[in-house]
C-alpha cells in the first residue's frame, strides 16, 4: 500500500502544473474559448511535446505510462487549470480505440498531430453504452453507415471520426456493435460550442462511407474499456477543478469583509467549507479507487461508485462555492464562473449520478459488502 | 500508488484472520450481530483471549508488553475484528491511559499499572467531561486541593463510559485557577473504592446504561497518583486524544453494519419482493456503500501517512465526521428496513434474559442502535467542533 507518486510522476506533475498555469492565465483562457476548434492549437502542441498525450499510453503502445494512476495524475492537473483541450476525446477515447484496433496510427495521436472524435451516443440512448441504433451495411470495398449520433465531442477539430454502428443485434445488445473510421470530408455537420469549453456536433449518417476497425460486431468490450478510462479521466479532472474551486473560495472567505470582519470568520461558512473539504477528499479517494481498478476485475463497480460520488460532490462544490461567493460567483468574468460551468457538466458525460447509482445497485445487490478495505 | 497491502501486511492480515477463525468465540459475534452491547464478563473474556495471544495492546511498544504494531497493522487488526462483530477493546486502559503512562508516568506508575491493564486486574474509566465542560474541556471545574501527602478532590464528572464496571478512573482535575483555563489542570489516577466516590448511572435513550455520573466528595488521593507535573495535565490529555483517534473512522463497524443491513433488506418482504429490490431503498443503501468505499480509502491514506511517520492532524477530524455520519445513516436504514418490528421496545435488559425477542431477531435492537448511536457525532469532540478544527487548521479560516 502506497499513496505516493513515483519520482517520474512527480516530475510530470510539476512540469504540467507549471505549463498549464502559464497557458491558462486569463488571456490564455479567453483565447482558447474563442478559438474555432474550441481550444488553443499552441497549448495543445505544447502538451503533446511535453509527452502528456503519451502519458496516457503504455510503452508497448509507444507511450510513457498508461496506468490508471498516470491518467488520474494528468487529468487532475488539466482540471486544476480549467483546461479545455480535448485530451479525453483524442487521447483516451479515440486514441484508446486506435491502440486496440489500429496501433500503427497511434504515433500521430501521441505526437499531437491527429485529432479524433468518437461518435457513439445517439439521441434517446442517454448513457446506456450498448444502446446503438445506427446501422452499417457492407458496400463494395467498404461499408456505409446510416443513423444519427448525438453531442459528438471535439467534432470541430477532428481529422478522423470513430463511429459505432450495428452490424448485428438490436436495441441494447452488446453483441453486433462494430467500430468504423470515417474521414472528416465524408461528413456534413455543423459544430457548436458546449458549456464549459470545447465543441461538439450532431452527426447525420446517410450512406456515409466508412472503414471497419477491428472485429465485425465485436467492438463493445473495447468501447467499455475506453469508457471506463474516460470516466476515470473526467472524475480526476473534476477533482482538480474542485481543488481549484476550494482554493478560490478559501481565498475569498479570508479576504472579503462584511460586518467588519472577513466572512470566513462566520461559523456557518466555516462549517460549510469544512464539509466541502471533506467531500472533496472523498472524491479523491473514489478517484484513487477507480484508478487502481480501471484495468482490473472490479472495474465496472468502481466506475459506477466513483462517477456517482464525484457527480454528487461536484454539484455540492459548485453550488456551495457560488453561494459563499455571493454575486461575484455568478459573473462571467470571475474565474469561478469557468470552473462552475465546466464542473457542472461532469455529470453529463459518461453517465450521471442516477445512471451510475443504478449500475452500482445492479452490481452489488447480491454481493457481500466490502469487508475491510485494501486487499 | 498502489492499493495493495505489502506482502508483510498481507501475511499479517492472514495471521489475524486465522486467529479470529480459531479464537473469536461465536457467542461474542452473535451478540454483535444482534446489536447488544457486551457484558462486563464478555469484555473480560475477549480481553483475556487477546492478552494470551499478546495482541491486546497492539499500539504499545514491546518493552511494555505490547505488540508494537505499525499503523497499518493496527488498522488491519481493528478493521478485521470489528467487521466480524467482535467486541471492541475497551479503550480506557489500553488505548488511552497506557500511552500516557508510558510517556509521562513515573517508573513506579508504569511498573504497577501497565501489567494490570494487560491482565485485566484493573478496569479503568475516563473522567474528563463535566456538566458544562464537554467539547469545551478546558472549562472543567472538578477541583483537587493539596493537603500534605494527598489531594482532596471535590466535584463531578459525567458521561463516564462503562464507569459502572470500573475500579479506577483517570481524571482531569483543576489544581489552579491562575492563568489560562488550560494551565491549571492536572492528570490524576483515582481508585474508585476510595471513600467519597459515588457512581450514578445515566439511563440512555435506548434504555441501556453505558454512561454514568461520578461524584467526588472530599476524596483523598495520594500525591504519587499524580501523573507527570502538577498543572501540566492539559498536555497529557491532548496526547491521549491523539491516541483515542486511531480507528476513528470505524470502517470495520460500518462494514459489519452494512452487511447486517443488507441481510435485513433481503429478508424483509415489501410488496411481494425483497425490500432490497425496492429502488428507493436500494438507492439509499448504495449511496452509503459508495461513501463507505471512498472513506475506507481516505482512512487508508491517513493510516499510510501515519505509518510513514506523519502525525495525523485535522485528517482525523475529517474521518470522525464522515465515519460517524456513515454509521448513523446505516443505523437509520436498518431501522427503516425493520419496518413495523422497529416499534417493540426491546431494551438491553430484556435481551439480557433468555426471552425470545418479539419479531425477527435482527429487528430487536435496530431502534435502540439508531437512537444510541446519535452519540457518535457528539462524543470525542462533537462534529461541529471537528469542523472548527478543519476550518482553522486546513483552511486557515
Can you characterise this structure?
- The complex is a heterodimer of chains A (375) and B (397).
- With 375 residues, chain A is an alpha+beta fold.
- In chain A, 48% of the residues lie in helices and 15% in strands.
- In chain A, α4 packs across α7 and α4 runs antiparallel to α8.
- The C terminus of chain A is likely disordered.
- Chain B has 397 residues and is an alpha+beta fold.
- A 4-stranded mixed β-sheet of chain B has the order 1-4-5-8. In chain B, strands 2-3-7-6 form a 4-stranded antiparallel β-sheet, with no helix packed on it.
- In chain B, β2 and β3 form a beta hairpin.
- The chains are: A alpha+beta (375), B alpha+beta (397).
- The interface between A and B is large, with 47 and 55 residues.
Topology overview:
The complex is a heterodimer of chains A (about 375) and B (about 400).
Chain A: H1 7-23, H2 26-34, H3 41-50, H4 68-81, H5 87-101, H6 106-110, E1 116-119, E2 135-139, E3 142-153, E4 160-166, E5 177-183, E6 192-193, E7 199-213, H7 220-255, E8 257-258, E9 261-262, H8 267-293, H9 299-325, H10 335-343, H11 353-364
Parallel strand pairs in A: 1-4
Antiparallel strand pairs in A: 2-3, 3-7, 4-5, 5-7, 6-7, 8-9
Chain B: H1 7-23, H2 26-33, H3 40-53, H4 71-83, H5 91-104, H6 107-118, E1 124-127, E2 143-147, E3 150-157, E4 168-174, E5 185-191, E6 197-203, E7 209-222, E8 226-227, H7 233-244, H8 251-267, E9 269-270, E10 273-274, H9 279-307, H10 315-338, H11 348-352, H12 366-372, H13 383-393
